[in-house]
Amino acid sequence: MSERRKRGNETWNRLLDWSEAQLAAERLAGQILLSEGYVSVDPSHPLGGPDGGKDLTCFKDGEKWRVAVFFSRGKQNFSKIKSKFTSDISKGRNEKDTDFIFFVNQYLTLGERAKLMNDFASLGGENLEIYHLERISLIMDQPRNYPLRADFLDIEITKEELVAFISELESRLRTNIIDAMVPAIGSIIKEMLDTSYVDSLRKDV
C-alpha cells in the first residue's frame, strides 16, 4: 500500500481523480450538506432520470436551496464547468428557485468563482454557495467527516485521526447533554462521559 500524501493532498487528489458514478457524487454532496447544517436534504433522481437541473434540494434557516453536482475525473476546462453551471441554473428558472448550491470537484480560482457568481446574478439568482475542490477537501478532512472520507475516498483512518474523531464526538455529546440538563448535575455528567478508552488511545499516539 502506497504512503498517504500529507497536508491534505491525499483527499484533494482523490477528489480530483474521482472515478465513481454520479450516484456516489450526489450522495457525497448530500452527506456534506448535512454536516454543514442543512436539513431535509432530498435527492432527486440519483439512479438516473430528469431532475430539472437539481440533483438535490435542502433547507437552511427556513430557506430552500436547489443543489447541482458536477464531478468528473481529472482536471476540466473552466468553460466546461461554466457551461454545466449555467445549464443547471437556467433549468431551475421555471421553478423560481433563487438559492443555489453548486458542487464541483475542480480547482476554481477566485476569478473563476466570481464569474460564476456574476452569471448566477444575471440569471436572477439571489444566494449562491459553491463547493469547489479546495472547500470540499477541507470539509472532508475535518474529524467529524473522517468516516465519510473513508467511505467515499477509501482513505483509512489513522490512530491519530481516530483519537481526534472520538474526542470531537465526546465534546459534542457533552455539550448537548449538559446544555439540556440542570447545571447542578453538570459535573456528574462530565465524569460519566470521561471514557478511559479515549485516554488509552491518547497514550498510544
Keywords:
alpha/beta, 5 strands, 50% helix
Question: Can you describe what's shown?
Answer:
This protein has helices at 9-16, 22-35, 78-91, 110-122, 133-140, 146-153, 159-180, 186-192, 196-204; strands at residues 39-43, 56-60, 63-70, 99-104, 127-131. It is α/β, with parallel strands linked by helices. The chain has a five-stranded mixed β-sheet. It is globular and about 55 Å long. The protein starts with 8 loop residues before the first helix and ends with a helix. The model has no long low-confidence stretch (mean pLDDT 84).
Coarse structural class? alpha/beta
Average pLDDT for all residues: 84
Q: Radius of gyration in whole Å, from Cα?
A: 20 Å
> Distance N terminus to C terminus?
22 Å
Biggest sheet features:
5 strands, mixed
Beta-strand residue fraction? 5-15%
Shape, please?
Answer: globular
Q: How many strand segments?
A: 5
Helix content: 40-55%
Residue stretches low in confidence (pLDDT < 50, at least 5 long) are none
The run of helices and strands is HHEEEHEHEHHHHH
